[in-house]
């Protein structure tokens, strides 16, 4: 039974206004902040397991659904990396306080790194958040996936359909409903790419990656790890692990990584 507190945060104004659903568990530091994947929600197996671990440890835990996902408002097709980043920053700065360990899965790994970059930018301008990031756990991080794992791998026919019609429906291995890949998603994401430079978070980073992952190949994650400038980074490759890393042994490995902080 989920006994975490459900609340909503309104983000944006006018046509951009949307209600973001947040599930929060009170507890001691270090708090946990969950960022889910593309088309995933905060009631997934990893998010639920993390919340229950936090409960057992007496730790605070915050998770939420991006707009167009799960219990939040808005249309999925309106989503962009920038839009979901805005929501991530708003929930983190509004709902969290004190030191936090940020856990990002798949697209959430990309958003976690963008969140830290934005927090550091604000701090440099004297706008420090009441919450800070002291540790980062990334699970099959899909950094720059719109460009590296989608656009560059699409056939000329798919690219043409996106450019001319504005969207293409990609079959999903995880749902009967396809993923709608919009031109706006691809183009807007180019403002947030990280593979074009070095990455510095200022905190320890732990990365879990399945070698059998067909969505985010392990060599993509190795490339990501090579771009961390000075951070303490440990990459764990799970030889028989897939993209979800949701088996009991995978969840146990996740909790071990989180427990380092």
Distance between the termini: 26 Å
Helix percent band: 25-40%
What's the number of helices? 8
Q: Unreliable stretches, pLDDT < 50, 5 or more residues? A: none
Order of helices and strands: EEEHEHEHEHHEEHEHEH
Shape: globular
Explain how this protein is built.
This protein is an alpha/beta fold and 261 residues long. 34% of the residues lie in helices and 25% in strands. It is built from eight helices and ten strands. It has an eight-stranded mixed sheet with strand order 1-2-4-3-5-6-9-10, with helices on both faces. Strands 7-8 form a two-stranded antiparallel ribbon. The mean pLDDT is 95.
What keywords describe this structure?
alpha/beta, two-stranded antiparallel sheet, 8 helices, 34% helix
Short description:
This protein is an alpha/beta fold and 261 residues long.
Secondary-structure topology with pairs:
Layout: E1 5-11, E2 18-25, E3 28-35, H1 45-57, E4 59-64, H2 81-95, E5 98-105, H3 107-124, E6 131-139, H4 145-150, H5 156-165, E7 167-170, E8 179-182, H6 183-189, E9 205-210, H7 218-225, E10 233-238, H8 248-259
Parallel strand pairs: 3-4, 3-5, 5-6, 6-9, 9-10
Antiparallel strand pairs: 1-2, 2-4, 7-8
Helix pairs in contact: 2-3
């Amino acid at each position: 039974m989920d006994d975490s507190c459900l609340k909503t945060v309104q983000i944006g104004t006018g046509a951009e206004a949307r209600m973001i659903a947040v599930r929060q568990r009170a507890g001691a530091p270090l708090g946990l902040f969950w960022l889910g994947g593309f088309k995933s929600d905060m009631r997934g197996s990893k998010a639920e397991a993390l919340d229950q671990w936090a409960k057992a440890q007496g730790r605070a835990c915050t998770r939420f659904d991006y707009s167009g996902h799960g219990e939040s408002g808005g249309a999925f097709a309106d989503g962009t990396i920038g839009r979901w980043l805005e929501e991530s920053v708003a929930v983190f700065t509004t709902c969290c306080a004190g030191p936090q360990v940020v856990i990002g899965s798949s697209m959430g790994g990309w958003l976690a790194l963008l969140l830290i970059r934005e927090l550091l930018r604000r701090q440099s301008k004297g706008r420090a958040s009441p919450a800070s990031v002291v540790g980062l756990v990334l699970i099959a991080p899909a950094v720059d996936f719109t460009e590296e794992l989608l656009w560059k791998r699409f056939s000329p026919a798919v690219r043409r359909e996106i450019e001319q019609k504005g969207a293409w429906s990609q079959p999903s291995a995880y749902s009967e409903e396809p993923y709608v890949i919009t031109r706006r998603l691809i183009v807007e994401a180019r403002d947030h790419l990280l593979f074009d430079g070095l990455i510095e978070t200022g905190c320890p980073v732990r990365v879990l990656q399945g070698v059998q992952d067909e969505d985010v190949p392990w060599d993509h994650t190795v490339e990501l790890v090579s771009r961390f400038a000075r951070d303490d980074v440990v990459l764990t490759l799970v030889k028989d692990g897939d993209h979800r890393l949701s088996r009991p042994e995978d969840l146990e490995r996740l909790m071990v990584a989180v427990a380092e902080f």
